[in-house]
């Protein structure tokens, strides 16, 4: 799937039923308590999000189970978020969150 920009309102969920690649040409922004990731039975590596813009923001209490690649972006990961997979950005600003990395096959690494 390819989008110009993505903005999720509060409590919005994006669930992938199968492995998927999402391309965002501009910004990716979420509001409070969002979910982005696979439906049950999938792993973080099944959801790949490429952002070509300069901003990625995951707001308070967001849950992201995906690999996010935004090489030109400043990525903001805000309070109470849980992120499994990986976030690759030019710069990451984070506070009060849980972050776990996954290997390429989706297995979690301590």
Please trace the helix and strand order, writing H or E for each element.
EEEEEEEEEEEE
Spatial separation of the terminal alpha carbons: 31 Å
Largest beta-sheet details: 12 strands, mixed
State the share of residues found in helices, binned by percent: under 10%
Query: Which structural class should the secondary elements be placed in?
Result: mainly beta
Q: Count the E strands.
A: 12
Global geometry = globular
Whole-number radius of gyration? Answer: 12 Å
Enumerate how many helices there are, as a single number. 0
Mean pLDDT: 85
What fraction strand?
over 45%
Unreliable stretches covering 5 or more consecutive residues: none
Overview of the structural elements:
This protein has 110 residues and is an all-beta fold. The protein has no helices and twelve strands. The chain is globular. The N and C termini lie far apart (31 Å). The model has no long low-confidence stretch (mean pLDDT 85).
Tags for this entry?
110 residues, mainly beta, 0% helix
Explain briefly what this protein structure is.
With 110 residues, this protein is mainly β. The chain is built from no helices and twelve strands.
Secondary structure layout plus pairing:
Layout: E1 2-3, E2 6-8, E3 13-16, E4 20-24, E5 28-30, E6 35-38, E7 47-51, E8 55-58, E9 63-77, E10 82-94, E11 98-102, E12 108-109
Parallel strand pairs: 1-4, 2-5, 3-6, 4-7, 5-8, 6-9, 7-9, 8-9, 9-10, 10-11
Antiparallel strand pairs: 11-12
